[in-house]
From TrEMBL:
Family designation: Belongs to the AB hydrolase superfamily. AB hydrolase 4 family.
UniProt-annotated catalytic positions: 206 (charge relay system), 334 (charge relay system), 363 (charge relay system)
Keyword check for Transcription regulation: no
UniProt protein name: AB hydrolase-1 domain-containing protein
Top-rank lineage group of the source organism: Eukaryota
Alphabetical keyword list: Hydrolase, Serine esterase
AB hydrolase-1 domain sequence ranges: 126-364
The keyword Nucleotide-binding appears for this protein: no
Record-level Gene Ontology MF annotations: monoacylglycerol lipase activity; short-chain carboxylesterase activity
Source species: Arabidopsis lyrata subsp. lyrata
Stored InterPro entries: AB_hydrolase_1, AB_hydrolase_4_CS, AB_hydrolase_4_sf, AB_hydrolase_fold, ABHD4
Short name of one Pfam family: Abhydrolase_1
Length: 410
């Protein structure tokens, strides 16, 4: 990292302005001046549904018209693809500038900006906030590839490293959870206040996607984001937990619990003599993610049991309330984010959402496309096509063109 800066979060004044502007503008589909667009076709290898399909699929017609061809030998098995992507996908070199944000509860998160962006990007350049998966951070290959893709389109990018992740500092005896929205809200407000002329976007993978969709749904009337993308989101954490303990999935469970233990051990002194219902020995020696959540996470955030934590933290319960453009991309054979957990009915009913399900891809894999097997995942191009489409059409004649389709016209 080039340098470290500390900042303190401040009241979300700019986000309030962004939100108010959204409530006093019109949705493009209801504007008779806008040209009608027919639903573009997509290849039969892809499942494409959602109440917002007619609105957003024109942006993706080139990518979705082609068959999804998993890379030979690697893509034939979901576990092979998941593991190959984790260990053999290239990790692009990206210079990052770290900013440490102090939160209202005296906690800390780390924001990694692409170094040098401010020297050539105007202040109104769109900003993409990236949320990695559980224990992930700006060091991960899929994050780095997305940074490069967005940067090539002249977007400003920042990675939100949750407490303890990506060597983010931990300054209180609390990490983060699948449903804790305090940090993401403060990060988005902080970024918006730094760049008040820019439109804000976000993309999250795995647990980061779950947190993002929870935020979009629960803060639907106050969300300052213009659009968002969720990838390999487990959606229903109860179902995901059930599958996590089956067969080969135990390998992922043990790997993630090891990462959690490693993060915890760095900051274990903060949890000494914490008392209450915490089971620090269970968390410190967790053999499964469920053990860690039982000993630490669910107690930190006030849940009576792990099952209650998983149930109430599932973003599948909140996607129906999303009021900005949201693209969800899932793999039908994802071992960690099960296909049966996808809230298809709610996505179909929400005019702001569109879902793409690829037949293969594993978890955080998607080893397909022009850059396979070691380059960027297949999803990167689709993500940027969607976001750029929304950004290009975000204003028409000075008014927002992609506001919530649910909103009452005023």
């Amino acid at each position: 990292m080039a340098r470290v800066a500390f900042a303190t979060s401040s009241p979300p004044l700019i986000s309030s302005v962004r939100t108010l502007r959204r409530h006093f503008s019109a949705f493009a589909a209801a504007n008779p001046k806008l040209p009608e667009m027919s639903r573009p076709s997509h290849h039969s290898s892809l499942e494409v549904i959602g109440g917002g399909s007619d609105r957003f699929l024109p942006a993706l017609k080139d990518s979705l018209a082609k068959p999804y061809n998993a890379f030979p030998l690697i893509g034939f098995n979901r576990h092979v693809e998941t593991i190959y992507a984790a260990f053999y996908r290239s990790v692009p070199s990206v210079r990052l500038r770290r900013e440490c944000l102090r939160t209202k509860d005296n906690g800390s998160v780390a924001l990694d900006w692409v170094a040098g962006d401010d020297s050539y990007l105007p202040p109104e350049s769109p900003i993409l906030i990236l949320l990695p998966g559980l224990t992930g951070g700006s060091q991960d290959s899929y994050v780095r590839h997305m940074l490069l893709r967005a940067q090539s389109k002249k977007w400003r990018c920042v990675v939100f490293n949750s407490r303890g992740c990506g060597d983010s500092p931990v300054t209180t005896p609390q990490f983060y959870s699948a449903s804790f929205l305090g940090d993401i809200g403060e990060v988005i407000d902080h970024v918006g206040e730094k760049f008040p002329k820019a439109n804000l976007y976000a993309a999250g993978w795995s647990l980061g996607g779950n947190i993002l969709v929870n935020y979009l749904g629960q803060e639907s009337h106050n969300c300052p984001l213009t659009a968002a993308v969720s990838l390999c989101n487990p959606f229903d954490l109860v179902i995901a937990d059930e599958d996590f303990h089956k067969g080969f999935n135990n390998v992922y469970d043990k790997a993630l619990s090891k990462s959690l233990r490693r993060i915890f051990s760095k900051h274990s002194l903060l949890f000494e003599d914490i008392g209450g219902e915490f089971n620090i020995p269970l968390a410190a020696n967790a053999e499964t993610v469920r053990d860690f959540d039982d000993g630490l996470t669910r107690v930190s955030f006030g849940f009576k049991s792990v099952d209650e934590y998983y149930s109430k933290s599932s973003s599948s319960k909140h996607i129906k309330h999303v009021r900005i453009p949201l693209l969800c991309i899932q793999a039908a054979n994802d071992p960690i984010a099960p296909d049966r957990g996808i809230p298809r009915d709610d996505i179909k009913a929400n005019p702001n959402c569109v879902l793409i399900v690829t037949p293969r891809g594993g978890h955080l894999g998607w080893v397909a496309g022009e850059e396979a097997p070691n380059g960027a995942p297949w999803t990167d191009q689709v993500v940027m096509e969607f976001l750029q489409y929304v950004e290009n059409r975000e204003t028409i004649n000075g008014e927002r063109s992609f506001d919530d389709a649910h909103q009452i016209q005023v």
